[in-house]
Each structure stands twice: as structure tokens, then as C-alpha cells.
Amino acid sequence: MIDYGIEIWGDDDFIVKEGLVCINAKTQPSLLEITQEVRNSGLRGPIILRFPHLINKQIENLYNNFTRAIDENGYRGSFNAVFPLKVNQYPQAVNTIIQYGAPYNYGLEAGSKAELILAMAQTPIGAPITVNGFKDTEMTTLCFMAAHMGHNITVTLEGIGELESIIEVANSSNLTVPHIGIRIRLHSTGSGAWAKSGGMDAKFGLTATELIAAMHLLKEHQLIQNFSMIHFHIGSQMEDIAPLKKALREAGNIYAELKHMGADGLKAINIGGGLAVEYAQNKQQSLKNYSLAEFTNDVIYVLREIMNAKGVDHPNIFTESGRFIVASHAVLITPVLELFSQDHQEKSLNFSQHNPPLIEELRELNTLLNRDNCIEYMHDALDHLESLFTLFDLGYVTLQDRSNAEILVHQIIKKSLHIMRGSPTMELTRLQERLQERYLINSSIFQSMPDYWGLQQHFPVMPLNKLNEPAIRAASLWDITCDSDGEIKFNPNAPLYLHDVDLDEEEYFLAFFNIGAYQETLGMNHNLFTHPNECSIELTKDGFVLRDIIESQNILDILDDIGYDKRQILIQLKNNLASSLFSTEEEKSDTLQKLELYLYQNGYLRTTN
Ligand SMILES: *Cc1c(COP(=O)(O)O)cnc(C)c1O
Questions:
Q1: How far apart, in whole angstroms, are the C-alpha atoms of residue 341 and residue 338?
Q2: Pocket around ligand 1: residues whose beta carbon is below 6 Å from it?
Q3: How far is the CA of 233 from the centre of ligand 1 (A)?
Q4: What is the per-residue pLDDT across 126-162, written as a single tens digit (0 to 9) for each?
Q5: CATH architecture classification, 342-433
Q6: How does pLDDT run across 313-334, given as a tens digit for each residue?
Q7: Which of 303, 376, 566, 571 has the most CB atoms in a 10 Å sphere around its CB?
């Protein structure tokens, strides 16, 4: 059985059963049956399958772990969390977060005006809203409006200038003043690709000197009671726990100092996000060095020790982890459209009555190949192929002979790989890599996995079925964009092997996992491929129910979105048709019907798979 490292990245959410990858919950339906059910509704192209139960699981995990650590350490502050909208703003994700977060008073974090409006509309009154990112007076005013509507909202200052706009709005309106948070600039930095969120040269946060200036301003304008939170965020996908502990010590001491300086309203430390998700498919690639339990223990323990030593009440804790909450809930299913060397299939062989002796020998090697002789026969085959190429260059054999020879040698290597799959020799492994197969997938990497394109972020990938059959083809994956960057190359350090499939006979789907964080709105419409089809899967005691099937945008709407007038486009096409070469009106109207059908379908490939 090949499991594609599911026990490393799968977090017990998925299992392999009878050759199929299945959901590890309730009746354990397979992703293949779910995919087929969704496609039965007529959808073609890539599909994002969402699993709300996995969002629920992550929310529960987060709260349960902090509650446990708080109990075990006799910590006297509370635990609170918000979901950072920038990680996934799609309605199906956000609605699920709100639904399952309600019992915990889980809130939302906004980093832009549009996200703030979303947070104001979706957060239940009383659950926290935090607002980060750069703000103008309008955005600050929106925060005051939210406070006035009864929201428990905290505006986090990213720079000292933002305090001036808060003072200005407070003085010039009768609106309720929101809670004020201050982002602190740490000297300690995070780890991983996103580490520039923390540290002295960070984009955000107030220095020690600016903090003192802010304290004076807050006191002077009677806003000190509103100053309730300090905030830091050391960066996303934090793989090493050590920098977090350093940052906690620094932030904890800043908190205690501010309390001593008279920050009487200050009650909370917001430790930002950064909890990492495992994307690795093999152990060597796995970098995360801590568990959620260790993370929560560290946060609680470090803050408790500092506050006890400085005689300060334990602060309430806020987190803003996003990746950790939503990454696992979304799986991208992509049909494989084509294998590029399908011409190396046995069925393409075409012999004549009298074949060159080398071809006859290759046929014999292919038939007689077994475990004992396969290495020797493979060497012979490679040697014969070289000779045949020479004969071809000299004009002694035909193109058909050459094709037969190439197919036979491919067959012999593939069979040898199959026979020796438990213990391939170095030579076989190298041949396997050279024999790479290119799998064309019906999706766009730019749209669905932009972090692969931009940051070489690996996403776990596996086929939906055949997991009890050997997969010996070294695979590179090509998407359907006309861009050479739309490729996931074979990586010998983290090799992907897939099956030899005949797509005329059967369908073959690949699933990409952990795509629920950041990919969806970061994805770009390169080549005008838009957000894929999507569907939520609710697990029931008898199986599963499909909810909210949403088809990818249709072609006319895609064009409309970037500023074309879709009526104008239709008129133009109709005019072209009127003056076209069709002789009868019937032909014209048939063509028009077909054209309109295409225009109202999504832009992914449909007829092949
Ligand atoms: C992006 C961001 C987060 C979320 O980080 P994750 O790594 O997804 O947990 C939290 N807080 C702030 C301020 C952010 O900018």
C-alpha cells in the first residue's frame, strides 16, 4: 500500500481504506465517491471539497488545549480567539467558522475595510473583533461605528500616527470609543518564510520609545482606559517554537512595564497567529518541531512566570491563528486529462511480418523478463535501443520500427521497476526519474495553489484510488494554463510517483490537501481561469450530503468582471455569425445555440474530463 505520507500531514483526518483515500469520520466515505457524486450534478473541472467538520475539529482543539493548559497551570486570565479573515474570506468557510465558533465566543480579525465590513456583519454581538493593518480616518470611524453598534471591537495601532486619527474621531463624533490595542515591535524575530512579520525591521508595530509616547497621548486625551491590549505576530507557519518563547518573554515584560506605568485598562496580550500546518509528505521534509499542547503550555507558563515575578495580574490571552484553523478543511480535486507519454502504451505497438532482428530480440526480452534476469535484460534493451537509433539515422529502419523499439524499451523498464519496486537499484531509480510522466491536470496552479508558484510551498498530493496498486511513474504535474510556470516538477528529494493509467479506460483524479488557508483569495485569474467549483460535504450517520454546490464562474461573467460589457460581446459574436459562411438559417441558429451554451459554462476543460 502507498499512503503518500498521509500519517505525516493527514492529522488523522484522512485514511486509506481498500485502495481509496477516505474521510476518517462517521461512515468514512471515500473522496472518490464524493467526487463522483458532485460530478453527477454536471460539474466538470476542478472542485474544492470543503469539510466543515474539520474546521470544527480545529476550533475545538485550539480552545480545549488552552483551557487545559490554563487549568493545569492555575492561570488566572481567560483565553479568547479570533479568526483572521485574510486567511479565507469565502462565505462557506466563514459561515462554518461562525457556526462552530459560537459556543466559544470565537470572533473575527479584519485587516482591511472590506474585511472589517464583513466582520461587522458576521460576528455575533459580544464576540471579539480585532482590527489590524494600516487604517485611515474612515476605517477608524468604521471601528467606532462597530463599537456603537455594540460590538466588542479592538482597534490595533500599527503605528503611532493611527493614534492621532483615533483621538480625532473620538473628539469629533459622539460614537462609542472602541478598545484600543497596540502592536509592539519586538527585537526577537520569528522563523520560517514569513519571519519578517516580527523583528526590529518589521513592517508593523511601535518601538519602546513610541510606546512611551503613546502612553502619554492616551493619558492626555483620557483614552487610557480604552487601551486594553498589546499585540504581536511573529509570522505565519512558525516551524520552530524557540522564537515564540523569546517573543512571549519580551511581550510579557512590555505588558508588565505598561501596567506599572499606569495602563489601567490593559487586560490582554494578543499573541497573533503562526501555528504551523504540516505540508510535508515525507519525514525528511517535515520541519515543524512542536505540538499544539507544547505551544499552549509555553504560552501559559511563560506569561504566568513573568506576571508573578513582576506582581501583575495574569493577562487574558488572545490568538489569531488562521492557517491552523482552515488549512485542512479544503481539498482540491483535479481530474487528470492526459498522460503525455501515453504513446508508450503496449497497445500502440504495431509490428510487421518481418521486423528487424533487434526488434524481435526486444520483444523476446519483454516477454521473458522476470525477477532474476530483469536488470540484465534491461541493460540489453537499452543497448539495443541505442543501436536502433543508429540504424534509424543511417536509414536502415523505419519510423514504425523506431516507435516499436521505444515502446518496448519503456515497457521493459516499467516492468523492471514494477518487479523491483521493493528494492530498486540506484540505476533503476535514475531511469525512473528520466522516464518521468507528465500528468496534465484540469486546473490552474496560479488560481488554486498560488503559494506553490510564489513560495514553492508544497501541498500534499495523492490519487483518490488505486492505493493498493504500485505507482511507479515519476510524475510531474502540468496545469492547463499556457504558462511554463504552471508546473509542479518532479522533485527527487520529495518524489511523487503516480499510476500508469489509460484514461480512455478509466478516470484518474488527484487530490491536493491543506489548501484551505490563503490560497483561495490569493489565487489569480491568470489565463482567465477563475475560482474552481466548490461544494461542502456534511457527514451524516448514513454517509454524506452535498451542500452549497457552486459552479465556477461562467465565461461571460469572467469577461464582465475585468471590464468588458457582456451584452456587447454577445452582440459582436451574433453579428459575426450573421455574416459568416453558414448557408442556412438553421445552421446559424444551431451554432448560436451552441455558442451560447459554451459562454454560460465555466472556463475549465469539460469534454475530456
Ligand atoms: C496573517 C495574520 C495572522 C494569521 O496568521 P496564521 O499564520 O495564518 O495563523 C494573524 N494575525 C495577524 C496580525 C496576521 O497578519
A1: 9
A2: 84, 86-87, 132, 233, 236, 272-275, 320-324
A3: 7
A4: 999 999 999 999 999 999 999 999 999 999 999 999 9
A5: Up-down Bundle (1.20)
A6: 999 999 999 999 999 999 999 9
A7: 303
